[in-house]
Amino acid sequence: MMTTPLIEVTRLRKAFGRHRVLKGIDMRIEAGSSVVMFGPNGAGKTTFLRILATLSKPTSGTVRVAGVDIRDNPEGIRQYLGLVGHAPLLYDDLTAYENLRFYARLYGMEASGERIRELLERVGLWHRRHDLVRTFSRGMVQRMAIARALLHNPPILLLDEPDTGLDPQAAEMMTDLLREIGGSERTIIMTTHHLERGLALADRVLILVGGEIVFDQPASDIDYQELRPLYDAYVGEGVVA
Description:
alpha/beta, Rossmann fold, 2 domains, 6-stranded mixed sheet, 4-stranded antiparallel sheet, about 25% strand
């Protein structure tokens, strides 16, 4: 018997005028999965995540989260989601604590102080809770963005290239954090250009090229030495990923 997936995408298409960005994506994602999507710039990765996050509407096709079409109740669906995009959505002139307290109020969370402390400790920033975000490094800002996205404890976390611009030490810290917050109670969908790092986090690997999924396989069935030439064959050698 097939169980109902947490996320079900059917014949998803997205066009901006005559430019077709997504060209008919079908996908089922089970609860607790860690799905990593690779692909070159312009492949449609960000557009796909924005649709899942209810920030962009499909041109055609359907996306269901927990059995509900995202177009029928986008506000309700957002309670299921945490998003870390290219912009951290943090206020530079507020402290780390003030930023999370502000978002807690937006979510209508009461007695949020304990939750804020828990998250800042988890991302290693409790000792910087009274410092303005504008004084933080790029890696610290990304960890703060993850704390913000997790504030309401969503079962789905969407990450759009969260390791972009990080130095190797910060990127490794980010990988450890994402590994820690994943698991059976949270589904993670992430895009990244870094094949080895993404593969280490994934239990399912996708490659998106030209708005179409050209590869979809369990991460346990492939290692980096196999993935690199496979990616080059689909995308083209010399493309940074």
